[in-house]
Amino acid sequence: MAVNGDRGEDGSSLEAEKRQVTRDRILRAAMVAMAQRGFAVTVEEIAAVAGVSARTIYRYFDTHDQLVAEGYREMLKAVGSFIPDLPSVEDDLDGWIDCIALAAHARNSMIIGAAFWDVFKPVPSPSKEIEEVRAARRPMRTQWMTGMAFVAWMAAGGKGEPPTSLVVTFSLALSSFTTQGLAADFDYGPEEAARFAAGMIKDHLAAAVSAQDRSTQTT
Question: Is domain 2-73 in CATH 1.20.1300.10, yes or no?
Answer without folding.
Answer: no
